[in-house]
Design a protein that fits this description.
alpha/beta, two-stranded antiparallel sheet
């Protein structure tokens, strides 16, 4: 298992994402992922499966201290009082005394960012979260957030068809992690000819090439989601090969600004 090193801590470079999994699927998937060797689990209030994630961690018999656990606060509950009530519910559902990483799931221009992050930092001091972070913050908003204090990550859509060059540079310069969600582009990577060709050189699948491409970048982690046990196992089997510089560039050349997640409340991605 490789790690991303930021803020004087090590975070497993590959995590198990639980978006769109039911509570039962999240329970089974989390347990199985931890048994395979995953040690980074990602969930969220909006996923409505935290109770399953918590049960999966307990059933795996992996100690809580070995698991890097992330959850997120939805964008309509970001006032200080709401955040404090929210974290208690997150901890209750996950059946844990703390989460390793708490994220603002989406920015909300109607709530002052300073107030929200100040509350996150207070929760960090109180031991209820180990690190604060954000998700779906474009570069200019990430700069604004970093003015309030150190953040561990910005979790964004990132895959071979959507590059994040500005945020990648910021992550290295400002010492935070870029967490790639939807790293396989909702299955699109599976049938990509370039990824297939590169994979054939290593005896690997296109999905494994896409994940390897991400975690070989500095300060980047990836959190693929799968309800299929075989796919979870396949996604985790990426530690025994490396892509050459030429192969890395071939994947970068695939970028076609292929954004797939763009809800009505999303920020201006170009800012």
């Amino acid at each position: 298992m490789e790690h991303v090193n930021v803020k004087d801590t090590e975070i497993p470079a590959l995590g198990f994402g639980t978006w769109e999994l039911s509570t039962r699927e999240a329970e089974e998937g989390t347990r199985h992922a931890l048994e395979l060797g995953y040690r980074h689990i990602d969930t969220a209030q909006m996923y409505q499966n935290e109770e399953g994630v918590g049960r999966g961690i307990r059933e795996s018999r992996v100690s809580r201290e070995e698991v890097f656990l992330t959850t997120k606060v939805w964008f309509d509950e970001l006032t200080p009082d709401q955040v404090r009530q929210n974290i208690e519910e997150r901890l209750r559902l996950l059946d844990t005394e703390y989460v390793d990483l708490l994220l603002i799931h989406w920015p909300n221009p109607r709530v002052e960012l300073e107030q929200t992050l100040r509350t996150f930092f207070e929760l960090q001091e109180e031991g209820k979260i180990r690190y604060p972070g954000v998700a779906n913050f474009p570069p200019d908003l990430m700069e604004e957030a970093l003015e309030e204090g150190p953040l561990l990550t910005d979790q964004v859509e990132y895959h071979p068809y959507l590059d994040q060059p500005t945020l990648r540079e910021m992550a290295v310069e400002r010492d935070f992690m870029l967490t790639a969600y939807s790293p396989l582009a909702h299955g699109r990577a599976v049938n990509d000819q370039t990824l297939q060709q590169i994979g054939s050189d290593h005896g690997k699948t296109p999905s494994q090439v896409a994940l390897r491409w991400l975690i070989q970048q500095r300060n980047v982690s990836a959190i693929p989601r799968s309800s299929d046990p075989e796919h979870r196992e396949e996604n985790f089997d990426i530690w025994d090969f490396e892509l050459s510089d030429e192969q890395m560039q071939r994947v970068w050349d695939l970028d076609r600004n292929g954004r797939m997640i763009d809800p009505a409340f999303a920020p201006d991605w170009e800012r």
